[in-house]
Structure formats: structure tokens, C-alpha cells
Amino acid sequence: AVNLKGRSFLTLMDFSPEEVRYLLDLSRDLKAKKRMGVFNYLLKGKNIVLLFEKTSTRTRCAFEVGALEEGAHVTFLDSASSQVGKKESIEDSAKVLGRFYDGIEYRGYKQEVVEALAKHSGVPVWNGLTDTDHPTQILADFLTIEEHVAKPLHKVKLVFCGDIRNNMSYALMYGAAKTGMHMVALGPKELAPDPAVLAAAREAAKLTGATIEVTDNVAEAVKGADVIYTDVWASMGEEDQIPARVKLLTPFKVTLEMLQKTGNPDVKFLHCLPAFHDFETKLAKEQKALGHDIREVTDEVFRSRHSVVFDEAENRMHTIKAVMVATIG
Ligand code: CP
Ligand code: NVA
After folding, report:
1. Cis-peptide, bond into residue 274, ω within 30° of zero
2. I need a surface site. Which of 5, 146, 148, 246 has the fewest CB within 10 A?
3. pLDDT for 120
């Protein structure tokens, strides 16, 4: 039987296929219970701290609501209002927080920081996004796929298009490897994934029969896809690269034409969000004035019947709750 008590959740690569399956099943179970109004206060009396060095809507709210619904207490700290990453080492912050809290969530830049927090705090640490991974997002994505695609995960073909060198691309590779999925990273050669990441994912894939491909051929990549997934073209902290990315990534924008090329009338569209699908935000407007269309997906696709992005966003909460319950509940 799977037991994840006391474990940190830094990357899916640390978890066996059975453990990933367990977390998805627990998520489904907690979601069903919430729908029925049943709460078992599985985190009663626990204290949780959320550290954010980058901004967030979904991840922060998922941790807060998930924790509170199970009876835990939450403290939110960002870089502006705490000493973390400024006046003392991560090791010292970890040692202090480990004495106050039962679990620590961290969102920031380097994966090494979340690893150091886990090493020195003595309590489970959960990765709420780094430059190279976003493991809680994958649980939500895969739960959503199971809800909307009538196939087991190991029969699903998922195409991630755009910046295939970012945290979502890598997290999806790791998730595919652990579930036996056929994942295609579709993007330009200039943004080719780190060979070490690809090699590690392909090594793990041997255990499940997963296939992880990298290509810049749109028509070949999307053929027969069950899921088309994209993300912003410039991640948090990379805003200065927007003009270069628009040039490189426009051929990989998700359009209705791309969905048609899958040949699958029921193809699903996923996006971790937040998404630029219109020019409503200040950033998109400014860039438009400079002649850059930063939309990674057309509004037509985003609002189509193919799009399950808001179910996916809701599932952040159920899956993050499951991670907390499994590790400290
Ligand atoms: N998908 C995601 O992590 O969203 P936030 O940045 O709003 O947390
Ligand atoms: N790649 C994006 C994901 C946001 C959830 C970023 O890191 O900004």
C-alpha cells in the first residue's frame, strides 16, 4: 500500500507510478466528498506556511482553501513581507519554519531552493512552481484529462506547444513518464528542451512505456492528439524576452485550424493559466502597441467547447489538498 506521510513533493520524478496514481485517486475522492458536503478535517490542528517569491492566483488560493477546508491554519509570506531569500540563508529560514509549521509550500525561481527547504526544515515541502518544474499543476491536469477524455492516461496523446523549455513543458514530460502517456513537445529548435531533462524523463518512461517526443513539425505532432496544451510564451521573470518569443512561437499558437489538424473532433484544450487569449491585460495591450501579438491561444479556442481550462483550474484545489493530506494528514 502507498504511504506518503512525511514526504516532500518537489517533483513527480521522486514518485513512483503507483504513488502518482494514489494522489490522483485521493484527489478524485476528496473532490467527490466536497461535492457531497463531507469534510473529515484531515489536516485538523496543522499549520502550513506558503512562501511566494513569484505571484500567484490559483496555487495560493488552492493551498489556502484546501488547507482551511481540512481544518489547517495557513500563513502567507511573500518576498516583500518576509526575510526569506533576503536577510538570511534559505537553510536558516528552513530551520526556523520547520519548528513552527507542519508543511511548507514554496514558489520561486531555482529548483535548488525548494530542495534546500526540504533538506533543512525537517517537514514536508511542496513545490508550488520553480523555473524548471510545476508538479502540483500536473496532478490537476491529469485529473482533468481523466474526467474529460474517455481513455486511460497511458493511451492519451498530449501535445504541449510553445515554449518547450519552460517549467510546464518539463513537468508534463515527468508526468507523462510516470503515467505512460504519449507526450509531444512541439516548439522551435531555438527553445529545445535541456537534454538532461529529456534524458531523465525518457529513462523514467522505460518503466511505464511512455513516449516523449520533441518536434517542430505542427501537422505531424498534433495528428491524433487527445489533448492540446499550451502556456504563456514568456514565463514569470522573462518578460524582457517577449519580442523574441513572439517571433519564435507565433507558428505554434493554438488556433481552431490546429485543433482541426488533430483529426479528433473531441480534442481537448488545456492551459495551466493565466492565459493571454485577448488584449485585455496591460501587458498584452502594451505589447500590441509595439506590434507584438503575445496571445499563445486564440480567444476562439479558449472559449470553445474543446476548452476545459476552468475545470482544470478548479482541480488545482482538489489535487493540492490531496498532496497536503497524503503527506501531513
Ligand atoms: N497555474 C498556476 O500555477 O496559476 P497561478 O500562477 O495563478 O498560481
Ligand atoms: N510557465 C508559466 C507557468 C505559470 C503557471 C510561468 O512560469 O510563468
Report:
1. yes
2. 5
3. 98
| Terminal alpha carbon distance of the chain | 16
Q: Look at residues 132, 126, 86, 120 and name the one whose alpha carbon lies nearest to residue 106.
A: 126
Query: Any idea what DSSP says for residue 304?
Result: S
Determine whether the annotation assigns residue 161 to a binding site. Answer: no
* CA 235 / ligand 2 centre spacing (Å): 5
C-alpha cell at 101: 509549521
CA angle 321, 311, 263 (to 5 degrees): 135
Do 133 and 111 contact (CB within 8 A), yes or no?
yes
pLDDT digits (tens, 9 = 90+) for 62-114: 999 999 999 999 999 998 889 998 889 999 999 999 999 999 999 999 999 99
Do 6 and 37 contact (CB within 8 A), yes or no?
no
Ramachandran angles phi, psi of 157, nearest 5°: -105, 120
Q: What is the predicted ipTM?
A: 0.99
- As annotated, the active-site residues are 107, 134, 137, 231, 272, 316
Question: How far is the centre of ligand 1, averaged over its atoms, from the C-alpha of 134 (Å)?
Answer: 9
Beta bridge partners of 138: none
Q: Is 93 labelled as part of a ligand binding site?
A: no
> Which ligand does the CA of 316 lie closest to?
1
